[in-house]
Amino acid sequence: MVPPKVFVIGGTGAQSIPTIRGLVKDNAYTCRVLTRDVNSSRAQQLLALGNVELRTGTFASEKDLRSGFRGCEYACINIDGFNAGEKMEMFWAMRAYEVALEEGVKFFVYGNLDYGYKLGGYDPQYRCGHYDGKGRMGEWILRQNEDNDRQMGAALFTT
């Protein structure tokens, strides 16, 4: 039996490497990992696990997203909002969710952070762009899923 395939964005990051390690253990899943550099030491670490396919690209390309999601049953998306910026994370998280729906992904997991600004009563002292961008998108994804849950399930992985 062929294991189900998971498309992973952010796979070479500190949080996703252990996730991929767990997914491919015992041949439970295969992972298609989007990376800017397939020759990086972290990408090669993942490849050595087995059941890992590396794809050169960026989360900020609809073409790369579409190609990555195509043929995958699941998605694990963790955009580096700290480096990408709040606006870019928000836009591309939305597009990733939408393209995953279009490509027939069954379940979408989004790497999320608490929406601290909202939780702090919108007090400016709690404003933190990369947290707030992820928190907004997490809420947005769950809200979208109220309408789309028959087509694709979704969950947040909040650290």
From TrEMBL:
Listed SUPFAM superfamilies: NAD(P)-binding Rossmann-fold domains
Residue span, NmrA-like domain: 5-113
Keywords (A to Z) from UniProt: NADP
Keyword NADP: yes
Pfam families: NmrA (PF05368)
UniProt similarity note: Belongs to the NmrA-type oxidoreductase family.
Protein known as: NmrA-like domain-containing protein
